[in-house]
Design a protein that fits this description.
The protein has 118 residues and is of the alpha/beta class. Helix content is 19%, strand content 34%. The model has no long low-confidence stretch (mean pLDDT 90).
Length: 118
């Protein structure tokens, strides 16, 4: 009976231990048009029409869900740059991502970011 229970519970334990979702909150801003065409920290050319973002510490390539806490709208982005380097801000979004969560008129909004720890 004990063996049966171990074989039953082991996959459940492994499933929950493999992918933990991490959440952080703070303010988000978006890139100015002057960044268009510049190289990002990942080496890619920055384009406002892609769903990308900058974060100070997350590994480049990390996929993050950003939720605008003012209106509940969400967008998935890929981290490909470093920043923002303004106190109180945790993520800089491309204009396409900012438009998706309805923050273009505000410029800076409170957000929650969620990602899986690798």
């Amino acid at each position: 009976m004990t063996r049966y229970l171990i074989f039953l519970l082991l996959p459940v334990v492994l499933l929950f231990s493999c992918s933990r979702k991490i959440t952080d909150s703070g303010n988000a801003s978006y890139y100015a048009d002057s960044f268009k065409g510049r190289r990002t920290a990942s080496g890619a050319i920055f384009r406002q029409g892609k769903r990308t973002a900058a974060h100070k510490t997350l590994p480049l390539g990390t996929k993050v869900t950003v939720t605008n806490l003012k209106n509940g709208r969400k967008v998935k982005v890929r981290i490909n740059d470093r920043g923002p380097f303004v106190q109180g801000r945790i993520i800089d979004l491309s204009k396409k991502a900012a438009r998706k969560i309805g923050m273009l008129n505000d410029g800076v909004v409170p957000v929650k970011i969620t990602y899986k720890k690798k």
